[in-house]
Amino acid sequence: ENPEYQAEFDAKIDAGGYIEAKDWMPEAYRKTLVRQISQHAHSEIVGMLPEGNWITRAPTLKRKAILLAKVQDEGGHGLYLYAAAETLGVSRDELLDALHTGKAKYSSIFNYPTLTWADIGVIGWLVDGAAIMNQIPLCKCSYGPYARAMVRICKEESFHQRQGYDLLLTMMKGTDEQRAMVQDAVNRWWWPSIMMFGPHDKDSPNSAQSSRWGIKRISNDDLRQKFIDATVEQAKVLGVTMPDPELKWNAERGHHDYGAIDWDEFWSVVNGHGQGNVDRLAARVKAWEDGAWVREAALEHERKRVAREHQ
Ligand code: ACO
Fold this sequence. Notes:
Elements: H1 3-14, H2 27-46, H3 48-52, H4 61-86, H5 92-100, H6 117-135, H7 144-172, H8 176-195, H9 207-212, H10 220-238, E1 248-250, E2 255-257, H11 263-273, H12 277-290, H13 292-309
Antiparallel strand pairs: 1-2
Helix pairs in contact: 2-4, 4-7, 6-7, 6-8, 6-10
The structure holds acetyl coenzyme *A (ACO).
């Protein structure tokens, strides 16, 4: 603790300025950022799996090329975010170890299965749509390296959202069977997508402090509401309905009301008991183990290069 540095830090936060890697920061601020940025990085990497599942089964060459690019983007986002977390003094090995041993959290959404091709469109539209809604305010968060990483990530997420919506528009112009497939995917993904924003503000233990520190610029519930309001209009254009009979416009509030979220399901998924948790973790651990020889070869190559330089 250092009162002088603390005052300087507080003043910078209050003025809406950025904290940089080499600046003094309270230990709790550093820990919160490591927690959030690493959870975010893990989400990007685990998020490659549900969609990777469909690369070999994309219906056309064009859709395959788009999906490949998108899944690669997610991998890039993960690496970008691990690098941002490393500026806070943690190592990538520590972070990955926490993921592989099941200690780290990642977004609940990636524990749901992708059953049909329409799921790929719905992930782009709803899941990436929700992700952008949450991530645009993070471009202005108080930690410089995280904020700057988010700028590029949001641009790419925007392409992801559009490709999903475009895929769904195409399917909706197809056969009755294709339209039914889209509606079924919307029915399965809607509630998990609005859970992505996290618990209600009153039940969110980290919100008050993260808002005070300028990490969280818009609250979980406000972002969820913004997402619902925007998405309902897009659903009309698409010609699908949301699986929530209580979803309706409230003129007084100027927002859509919506039904009760099943928080038991949310916490069950977050705590490892969703449909996909075991498979997702197993796939990540296998990828890590299968990649061991690449890491060893890279280290050996570097060792030889350094040795040659010192000859
Ligand atoms: N899935 C899994 N865990 C979640 C989720 C979720 N959808 N929402 C909240 N949680 C966890 C939080 O991580 C926190 O756990 P912890 O204290 O053990 O770390 C706990 O539930 C309580 O939630 P909050 O107090 O609201 O936590 P926080 O202030 O961190 O807010 C939020 C959660 C909004 C997700 C925030 O961390 C955030 O903005 N993260 C960056 C964005 C992100 O990670 N997106 C990933 C999905 S999008 C994508 O990758 C394509």
